[in-house]
Each structure stands twice: as structure tokens, then as C-alpha cells.
């Protein structure tokens, strides 16, 4: 019997927006990930570029 492949890990990034709340962003990201077989393993969030810089720094360490 074939095993179903495990989902690929992914990070989510949210930020303050005049058009969409953080909660709305996370719901949209989770739907996107589910449709593509991704598992969100880390969530980055922050005002300005704080969350984005942390996410990029961690991605660079992983390689």
C-alpha cells in the first residue's frame, strides 16, 4: 500500500493592512496552504518589516 506523501513545510507572513485583518490574512493563507498540500510550520507577523526580516533570516539559515 502506498503512503501518502507528507506535506511540505511552509511559513506564513502577515502584517497590518488597511484592507485585511491579521485574522483574515491567516484564514486566506491556511486555505491557500491546504489547497496546495502545504503545512504551515511557522508564522511571522510584525509591523514594518520586522516579521519579514525574521522570516528571511531564518530561510537563509536553512540553506
What's this, in brief?
Strands 1-2 form a two-stranded parallel ribbon.
Structure overview:
It is built from two helices and two strands. The protein has 63 residues and is of the alpha+beta class. It has a single domain, classed as Rossmann fold (3-Layer(aba) Sandwich), CATH 3.40.50.1390. Strands 1-2 form a two-stranded parallel ribbon. Helix 1 links the parallel strand 1 and strand 2.
| Strand order in the sheet with the most strands | 1-2
First-residue to last-residue Cα separation: 34 Å
Count all strands and give the number. Answer: 2
Number of domains: 1
H/I helix tally: 2
Q: Give the CATH architecture.
A: 3-Layer(aba) Sandwich
**CATH domain class name:** Alpha Beta
Biggest sheet details: 2 strands, parallel
What's the helix and strand layout?
Layout: E1 8-14, H1 22-35, E2 38-45, H2 50-62
Parallel strand pairs: 1-2
Write out key terms for the chains shown.
about 60 residues; alpha+beta; Rossmann fold; two-stranded parallel sheet; 2 helices
Amino acid at each position: 500500500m502506498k503512503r501518502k506523501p507528507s506535506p511540505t513545510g511552509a511559513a506564513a507572513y502577515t502584517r497590518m493592512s488597511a484592507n485585511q485583518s491579521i485574522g483574515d490574512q491567516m484564514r486566506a493563507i491556511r486555505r491557500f496552504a491546504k489547497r496546495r498540500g502545504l503545512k504551515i510550520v511557522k508564522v511571522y507577523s510584525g509591523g514594518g518589516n520586522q516579521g519579514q526580516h525574521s522570516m528571511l533570516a531564518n530561510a537563509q539559515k536553512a540553506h
